[in-house]
Amino acid sequence: MWLLIATLVHCLFKRTAIFMNKILLFICFLYTYTLSAQDSQMALRYFQSGDFEKALVLYEQLLDKNDGNPQVYQKVLVCYQELQQYAKAQQLIKNRINKYKIAALDVDLGYNFQLQQKNSEAVQQYEKALKSIDIQPHLVYQIAKEFEDKVLLDYAIKAYELAVLKNDQFNFDYQLSLLYGQQGKMEIMVEKLLNYVERNKTNEFGVQNLLVRYLQEDADLKFAGILRKALLNKSQQTQDVFWNGFLSWFFVQQKEYGKAFIQEKAIFRRNGDNLRKIISLGRATMTDKDWEQTAEILTFASENTQDKNLILEIQYLKNEVDIKLATAANQKAVQAQLNAFLDHYDYSNATLDLALQTASFEAFVIKDYTAAEKKFKQLQQLNLNIYEGAKLKDLMADVFLMQEKFNQSILLYAQIEDALKNHEFAHEATFKLAKASYYKGDFEWAQKQFKVLKQATSQLIANDALELFLLINDATVADSTQQSLKKFARADFLIYQNKKAEALTVLKELLLEHKEEQIADATLLRLGELQQDLGNYQEALVYFNRIIQEHKESIYRDEAFFYSAEIYRLHLQQEDLAKQQYEQIIFHHADSIHFVEAQTQYRRLRGDKNL
After folding, report:
1. What does the CA dihedral 301, 307, 309, 312 come to, rounded to 10 degrees?
2. In this structure, how many other beta carbons lie within 10 angstroms of the beta carbon of residue 251?
3. CB 82 within 8 A of CB 51
4. Direct distance between the N- and C-terminal alpha carbons of the chain, in angstroms, rounded to an integer
């Protein structure tokens, strides 16, 4: 019995000892790994800052511990070469060649000779690397990459082309297209890229995204001409509608919508399954305000479908065109036409958007609130889901607000906010609710909401909320009675109601009465924006310039510069003055929401090809 107990105790201690040894080994490993990771991070910091001597000491230690790590090897090699220690670099490469027999290392050796201007020895090594591909074509992946990394483009091209000669299963059209593009040989680049996408049609969008970059940099339209010619040749050489679609995409990029439509019609006549793309083309022409082309495209789409959902979608877009082109003389006729369509299709969940579209036109354009509210009552009888109900309530609230029925609008916005918590639609409703309170003069409550909305996921809502939060805060500090703020909010509300002439009068009075106060710069901005909307560009520039000259610390200076630049560029064709305004944003307002656009337009005006 005692012998059995002693045996069990011995085994227990033995297992415990083994377990403890494993723990100690693991702790040692973890400690060693942590130290190694720290050394690696420090070495990288030295390397990136150009302190190659300090980086080399650490990288050599890391390579001693793990000489098979290719990343560490490359870092040591670069350090040697940056420090012009070419003999050590050569010995490092040769040792690695002898140990690992990697053919791509011949490129490293050749490049080390090239850095020393020993060109004949360099060429000898590069040719040796190419010979390895001749013997074993699969080595092209490593060797061509080494050539590319060292910007030895001619040799990289030779490597890919040699591999294809030795193995016709290989295809490197995509890689070759990028290399020829870097060399500026655009005809060959386009040819290779189109050959690639012809074999790999699922990568069409990736290729188009690459081509867009070149088209955007194409100041003299030379690249566009090359691509146009190549695509037309492809479409003529084959009956594949794939090239009609690609040509359509190209013509859209060039805003040649009529030609794009011809290609889409050709596809439709062949297989009839691209009506959605035709409708999308119609949307694109609407965005560019090419109304005549939009009408032609949408008419074709409506004549070639029996699908009710598509018919309703097309009708909605056609209505949008009619609304955009409506004049004071034909507004009533457009209203009658919209109601005739709605009566034909009747009220249902499927026609909700058509009904809301018509009600919006009646309320905001014709100011026929009775007609709009009649539609709201009919739509409320439908069995709408939570999102459809929110869309209806949103427009109802907007219309109530137009009529200065603040409490009714606030209640509806709050209902949307409560029903769709954390949804983007709810954030928009919250913002509208806060603005309604601001228009009403309830600044304390509105400011609390704007403070929360500064963190909204939508950048547009967050920026607008921040602007109004700061406006209320600054104006209240300057004037505790909030008299100037009340007038400013009234002007903003008149702008919402599209009563721009009345808003101008209120803002001008405000500027005269409170020109020394904190709210003056915001008033100048609103006046400039209103004049710009009315097409009074010189008057707008006067107000924007006053912000720049008289309010050096204003948070609106970047907007004043940007809006001035846009007026000079788009409306007055004074590009030099536009450049000067954009330049102010680039150099003095890097945190502006307009910074990226200002930078892009500045470079275009300067003639940069790489935007």
Report:
1. 50
2. 21
3. no
4. 88
Q: What is the pLDDT of residues 388-404, one digit of tens each?
A: 999 999 999 999 999 99
Q: Are 235 and 251 in contact (CB under 8 A)?
A: no
Cα–Cα dist 15/298, whole Å = 81
Q: At what angle do helices 369-379 and 386-402 cross, to 10 degrees?
A: 160
The C-alpha atoms of residue 482 and residue 155 are separated, in whole angstroms, by 73
Measure CA 38 to chain center: 36
112-129 burial, b at 16+ Cβ within 10 Å, e below that, comes to bbbeeeeeeebeebbeeb
Q: Nearest CA to 146 among 192, 185, 93?
A: 93
Residue 577's nearest CA partner among 530, 544, 534 is 544
Phi, psi of 80 (to 5 degrees): -55, -45
pLDDT in tens, 310-339: 999 999 999 999 999 999 899 999 999 999
Please state at what angle helix 595-606 crosses helix 575-588, rounded to 10 degrees: 140
Give residues with Cβ within 8 angstroms of 155, minimum separation 6: 107, 126, 129, 130, 147
Identity of residue 471: L
- Taking each helix axis from N to C terminus, what angle separates 2-48 and 52-65, rounded to the nearest 10 degrees? 150
Q: What domains are defined for the chain?
A: 511-611 (1.25.40.10)
CA-wise closest residue to 533 among 506, 499, 569: 499
R_g (Cα) of the chain, nearest Å: 34
Dihedral, CA of residue 114, residue 119, residue 121 and residue 124, to nearest 10: 100
Q: pLDDT tens for residues 223-244?
A: 999 999 999 999 999 889 999 9
- H-type alpha helices, 116-221: 119-135, 140-149, 153-166, 173-182, 186-199, 204-216
Cα–Cα distance between 478 and 465 in angstroms, integer? 20
What pTM was estimated for this model as a whole? 0.77
Token digits for 189?
Answer: 């680049």
Q: Over 544-561, what HEC string results?
A: HHHHHHHCCCCCCHHHHH
Number of helical (H) and strand (E) elements in the chain, helices listed first: 32, 0
Following DSSP, what letter does each residue of 339-372 receive, concatenated?
Answer: HHHHHHH-SSGGGHHHHHHHHHHIIIII--HHHH
Helical segments of 362-482, H only: 369-379, 386-402, 406-419, 424-440, 443-453, 459-478
- What amino acid is encoded at 481 in this protein? T
Residue 577, SS3 per DSSP? helix
- DSSP secondary-structure letter at 305? -
The tokens describing 592, both together, are 């502006």
Ramachandran class of 368: left when φ > 0, alpha when ψ lies in -120 to 50, beta otherwise: beta
* Residue 519 to residue 554: CA distance in whole angstroms: 10
The answer to whether 525 and 545 are in contact (CB under 8 A) is: no
For the stretch 538-554, pLDDT in tens is 999 999 999 999 999 99
Give the 3-state secondary structure of 206-230.
HHHHHHHHHHHCCCCCHHHHHHHHH
- CB distance 453 to 429 below 8 Å: no
- Classify residue 170 as exposed, middle or buried by CB count within 10 Å of its CB (0-12, 13-18, 19+): middle
Classified as helix, coil or strand, 51 is coil
Residue 387 contacts residue 394 (beta carbons within 8 Å): no
H or E stretch at 504: helix 500-513
